[in-house]
Design goal:
With about 500 residues, the protein is of the alpha+beta class. It is about 40% helix and about 20% strand. The chain is built from 19 helices and 17 strands. The strands form 4 sheets. A 5-stranded mixed beta sheet has the order 2-1-3-10-4, sandwiched between helices. A 5-stranded mixed beta sheet has the order 7-6-8-5-9, sandwiched between helices. It has a 4-stranded antiparallel beta sheet with strand order 12-11-13-14, with helices on both faces. Helix 11 packs across helix 15.
Length: about 500
């Protein structure tokens, strides 16, 4: 039995009565018990079509486990109900992809999309717009796709050769961002925290990710802010560099699932089926992160190394589908930030978001799949780099000090217990004429996953520490007496040393 929470108190009674009358008047045979009841139901439903319209964001790989993976591997079709009142029904599954959340909300309000996938700031705008403007339905937040407890994923970037190194340097400049997106909210807060007035100290313009990337390449803007995965994707492609990471806000961020309440009320079993498909996609990713990352690259155009960086072991985002305290904080903070910045016309109490969330569909999906709620959370939160160091054979005991590389042409990522071991192995690899498409390290102070080539390092003998920010690397070098280097310089240092391979 699906329970409905406080999200539709205003309309549930009327909707329930309407739906009940419709079933009595139009689908009474569905409730009739006969000796061949299911056959009678199928016959009654012959020609009946149920639309399932899902709006996703293919390039925003945080939505992949609810979007592209479910779509391309036909996981929703696998779990859709096919008996009882759904016997004989034809499903019209309509997928559409967008570059940000606001267009999805517009189509949900127009009853053209039933289920929408979007980031935290667009999601709360979605919920508020339905509550304040829609007459026929509410919107419900029913689950999380991926999240970061500190805000990793959103980022502010400048052209690769820019002299800008901090937000303060952007005063008087032009900054683009997809308006209404999670990155927009992050940018407004980051500028305000840095003492810059977003209205007067910078010129903000709205640009979709592909336009912002082009503007960075050609130097038409001073900076561009964006959400997952573009803060890593553009630097990975070599034409941008990060000057601010959303993790510096230490404020949780997420991408999640919203659904129109009228659709959920009429077809709760379909909502549960969709969530079962998403849960299966999560499991498939954990079992083969490199393989699914490669498939997502085919479906989205986002390089597999970037997908893996976000969603793989010790990645920037956790595939935790629940709506726990951290996820609720992300939604509440989004409302508070947008309200304080005057971006919500009719401000609401952030605590109101509790009435617009409902985990009952997700819990039912878990129950039907034989999953324990607490185990699902624990599995998602403990998804870290494990195993043995590929160079020395030692156990990887601290995932936040581990390093990895993905050798060109290989199906699996190679793990190391330390940055130093990874660089030693990389030196030997390159001596054999092989290359790695990506090298992964972790910020020494915060544990954030980083691309090695876009990081700053402090070398002190065989001890190597990585940093996102040059200022923090400089401070650590001064504190420890180490040497500040870029990754290529670090490779040159280790190229002069013998590579000692362990007994493995």
């Amino acid at each position: 039995m699906i329970s409905f929470m406080g999200w539709s108190k205003r309309r549930f009674a009327a909707s329930f009565l309407t739906v009940s009358m419709l079933f009595v008047g139009a689908c009474s045979t569905t409730k009739t018990t006969t000796t061949d009841g299911e056959e009678a139901t199928a016959s009654t439903n012959s020609g009946k079509v149920i639309r399932i319209a899902i709006g996703t964001q293919d390039q925003v790989i945080n939505t992949a486990v609810g979007g592209a993976v479910v779509r391309e591997l036909d996981l929703l079709e696998k779990h859709l109900p096919k008996d009882g009142e759904y016997a004989g029904v034809e499903y019209d599954i309509q997928w559409s992809s967008y570059t940000s959340g606001p267009p999805i909300t517009n189509k949900m309000l127009a009853d053209q999309i039933d289920i929408g996938l979007m980031g935290d700031f667009p999601a709360v705008i979605n919920l508020i717009k339905f509550a304040q403007e829609a007459q026929d339905a509410d919107s419900i937040f029913i689950g999380t796709l991926a999240y970061s407890p500190n805000g990793a994923g959103n980022a502010i970037m400048v052209p690769k050769d820019s002299d800008v190194t901090s937000l303060a340097d952007l005063k008087g400049g032009t900054v683009s961002v997809p308006f209404g997106s999670a990155a927009h909210g992050m940018l407004l807060k980051a500028l305000s925290d840095a003492g810059l007035n977003p209205e007067t100290d910078v010129t903000l313009i709205s640009q979709a990710p592909e336009v912002g990337g082009s503007s960075l390449r050609t130097g038409q803007i001073d900076a561009h802010a964006n959400f997952v995965p573009f803060g890593e994707l553009f630097p990975f492609r070599g034409f941008a560099k990060k000057i601010f990471d959303g993790a510096q806000t230490d404020s949780p961020t997420l991408h999640g699932i919203t659904v129109r309440s009228d659709f959920a009320e009429e077809h709760p079993e379909i909502v549960v089926a969709y969530l079962k498909a998403m849960l299966e996609a999560n499991q498939m990713f954990r079992e083969d992160p490199e393989g699914i990352s490669a498939q997502i690259e085919e479906w989205s155009g986002v390089e597999k190394e970037v997908v893996y960086m976000f969603l793989g072991p010790s990645g920037l985002q956790a595939l935790n589908p629940t709506i726990g305290d951290v996820q609720m904080t992300a939604l509440k903070n989004s409302i508070a930030t947008l309200t304080s910045l005057g971006r919500i016309e009719k401000p609401v109490d952030p605590n109101e978001v509790v009435n617009w969330t409902d985990e009952s569909f997700l819990r039912t999906a878990m129950e039907e799949l034989g999953l324990n709620y607490d185990d699902v959370v624990a599995t998602a939160e403990s998804y870290e780099i494990t195993g043995e160091d590929a160079l020395t054979g030692e156990a990887i005991e601290d995932p936040k000090r581990a390093a990895q590389y993905w050798v060109q042409g290989e199906e699996k990522v190679t793990n190391f217990a330390s940055i130093a071991n990874m660089v030693k192995a990389l030196t030997a690899l390159q001596a054999e004429g092989q290359t790695a498409d990506a090298m992964f390290v972790h910020d020494h102070n915060n544990g954030w996953k980083l691309f090695a080539e876009n990081s700053y390092f402090v070398s002190n003998g065989d001890e190597v520490a990585a940093f996102l920010l040059e200022s923090e690397a400089q401070a650590y070098a001064s504190q420890t007496g180490g040497t500040l280097t870029a990754f290529r310089e670090l490779q040159e240092i280790y190229a002069q040393r013998p590579v000692l391979v362990g007994t493995r």
